Amino acid sequence: MSTPAARAAAGAPAAVSAPADGSAAGTATQIPHQAAAARLTVRPVGTDGLLIELDTTERTEALHAELLRRRAAGTLTPVREIVPGARTVLLDGFAAPQAARRLAAELPGWEVPPLTGGDTAVVEIPVRYDGPDLPEVAALWGVPEDEVARIHAATEYRVAFCGFAPGFGYLTGLGERYHVPRRATPRTRVPTGAVGLAGGYTGIYPRSSPGGWQLIGTAPDTVLWDTRRCPAALLSPGTRVRFVPLDGAESAGGGHGD
Questions:
Q1: Cβ-defined contacts of 208-211 (< 8 Å, 24+)
Q2: Is there a single domain that holds both residue 129 and residue 215?
Q3: What are the two backbone dihedrals, phi and then psi, of residue 149, each rounded to the nearest 5 degrees?
Q4: Segment holding 93, helix H or strand E
Q5: Vertex 10, ends 110 and 179: CA angle to 5°?
Q6: Exposure pattern of 60-82 as b/e (b: 16+ CB <10 Å)?
Q7: Which of these three, 109, 142, 172, is where a domain ends?
Q8: Which domain holds residue 137?
Q9: pTM for this one?
């Protein structure tokens, strides 16, 4: 049987937030967060968990980073799992219900700084920009096809959350002008290592599967999930990622995330 954390992390590439199966118990609490216009909702999950819902992916990533920072510093109420979604963070495995309630009461007073590049290592993923949807993405962006590779590779990404399949990370970083819709008709088979775009996310398919993302390239040598490796997943929430073109395209400095 899956745990609440596993269920919250599960999803598909079309997902915009992690599901919260089993979170109906109790009453949701509206809590001011940073400003009157930005609010979060805290919902009890089972007897020893909390689901925190936020209004943007950016604030969700910032809260997840702050939770990890406080846990590393020993100032966070002990909790077994911290699982981010697109606009949710699940905290599962408090020692007692009282501990969860105390943290929910403390959240209004938290100062959550915005995300920065940080000083953690960057995972570099070699990519051949040869995807079948490259022409369509170029048209949507209003640029030549070779410019898609340059723009995409010039951006630094961050794994916002994981789901859909073991090893699949939802990477943020592309500015809103580069967001693209999913394909109107999904493919019945997307090959292992395909690099795709959907909405504001970049993703790499860890194994062959159906999918509706716009495919712009292939990461032929990257193993995203290997049970013989510890940890098995190459990418985890918070990981910084850069794509390195294999076709000679240069990732120009200055970035194109905006």
A1: 209/165, 210/186, 211/13, 211/186, 211/187
A2: yes
A3: -60, -45
A4: strand 88-94
A5: 75
A6: bbbbbbbbeeeeeeeebeebeeb
A7: 109
A8: 122-245
A9: 0.76
**DSSP strand pairing (122-127 vs 240-245):** parallel
Is 131 a domain residue? yes
List the chain pLDDT tens, one digit each, 258 residues. Answer: 344 443 343 333 333 333 333 333 344 444 433 333 347 888 888 888 999 999 888 899 999 999 999 999 999 999 999 999 999 999 999 988 899 999 998 887 788 888 776 667 899 999 999 999 999 999 999 999 999 999 999 999 999 999 999 999 999 999 999 999 999 999 999 999 999 999 999 999 999 999 999 999 999 999 999 999 999 999 999 899 999 999 654 433 334 444
Interior angle at CA 63, CA 169 and CA 89, nearest 5: 60
Q: What CATH number is associated with residue 12?
A: 3.30.1360.40
Count of domains for the chain: 2
Domain identity same for 100 and 11: yes
**126 and 74 co-located in one domain:** no
